Amino acid sequence: MLVIPCPHCGPRCEIEFSYGGQAHITRPEDPAAIDDETWADYVFMRDNTKGVFLERWVHAHGCRQWFNVARHTVTYEILASYETGAKPPKLDFETQV
User: Fold this and answer.
1) What is the CATH number of domain 1-24+47-87?
2) Which end of the chain has the lower number of beta carbons within 10 A, N or C?
């Protein structure tokens, strides 16, 4: 079981959280002005990184706050957690985002 460090509540078991997908996805400024292919790309296409991945989590059974996590997708090691809206932390090796 993962122990996820909530930046608001501290470390908690993963059963308290819900996964929210890839972090730092920018919504199109004017969705009505883009074509279907661009919209589908925004909605459905995500990176499938083998290595460090930046992802969103919500502390559903705690503070109910969204935050980001840098996690290694092979080892499941959580390298950092940080608040939504903050820049990703500098890690000792290059992140693959």
Assistant:
1) 3.30.2270.10
2) N
pLDDT at 91: 84
Encode pLDDT of 60-91 as tens digits.
999 999 999 999 999 999 999 999 999 999 88
| Edge-first strand listing for the sheet containing 66-72 | 18-22, 52-58, 66-72, 78-83
Residue 44, CA distances (Å) to 18, 21, 26, 32, 52 in order: 19, 11, 13, 17, 20
Classify residue 91 by its DSSP letter: -
Which residue in 16, 8, 32, 23 sits closest to 97, CA to CA?
A: 23
Nearest-angstrom CA–CA distance, 55 and 67:
9
- Sketch the domain layout of the chain as residue ranges: 1-24+47-87
